[in-house]
């Protein structure tokens, strides 16, 4: 194994870090638009608010009773991008 591989790996990691930062910036721009479907060139961007709970409440409540005062709820916005389908009519 050569030093060139280590150097290349370090470069790739730096590029990935920069790309991840750029991705986060762009996602934040879409989140700021709020919920909805947006057309951006040939792409559709869907921004939705979602939440999740990461505890199996039913199982715990079956054992311990009401746990509502101990539940935490996480709210977040989801951004998905899909290439727009353009159907050609003949």
Folded structure, characterized:
The chain has 90 residues and is α+β, with helices and mostly antiparallel strands. Helix content is 43%, strand content 28%. It has helices spanning 3-33, 57-64, and strands spanning 36-40, 43-52, 74-83. A 3-stranded antiparallel β-sheet has the order 1-2-3, covered by helices on one side. Strand 1 and strand 2 form a beta hairpin. The longest helix has 31 residues, at 3-33.
Highlighted features:
flat, 3-stranded antiparallel sheet, 2 helices, 90 residues, alpha+beta
Short summary of the structure?
This protein is of the alpha+beta class and 90 residues long. 43% of the residues lie in helices and 28% in strands.
The percentage of residues in β strands lies in 25-35%
- Poorly predicted segments: none
DSSP helical segment count: 2
- Please give the domain count: 1
H/E element string?
Answer: HEEHE
Radius of gyration: 22 Å
Spatially, the strands of the biggest sheet line up as: 1-2-3
Sheet bearing the most strands, described? 3 strands, antiparallel
Helix share of residues? 40-55%
Structural class: alpha+beta
**Number of distinct beta strands:** 3
Shape: flat
Amino-to-carboxy terminus distance: 57 Å
What would the average pLDDT be, to the nearest integer? 84
SSE topology sketch:
Layout: H1 3-33, E1 36-40, E2 43-52, H2 57-64, E3 74-83
Antiparallel strand pairs: 1-2, 2-3
């Amino acid at each position: 194994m050569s030093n060139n591989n280590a150097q290349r790996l370090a470069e790739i990691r730096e590029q990935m870090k920069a790309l991840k930062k750029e991705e986060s910036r762009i996602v934040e721009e879409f989140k700021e638009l709020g919920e909805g479907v947006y057309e951006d060139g040939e792409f559709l961007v869907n921004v939705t608010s979602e939440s999740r709970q990461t505890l199996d409440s039913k199982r715990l409540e079956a054992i311990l009773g009401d746990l509502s005062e101990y539940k935490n709820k996480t709210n977040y916005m989801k951004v998905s991008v899909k290439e727009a389908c353009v159907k050609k009519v003949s």
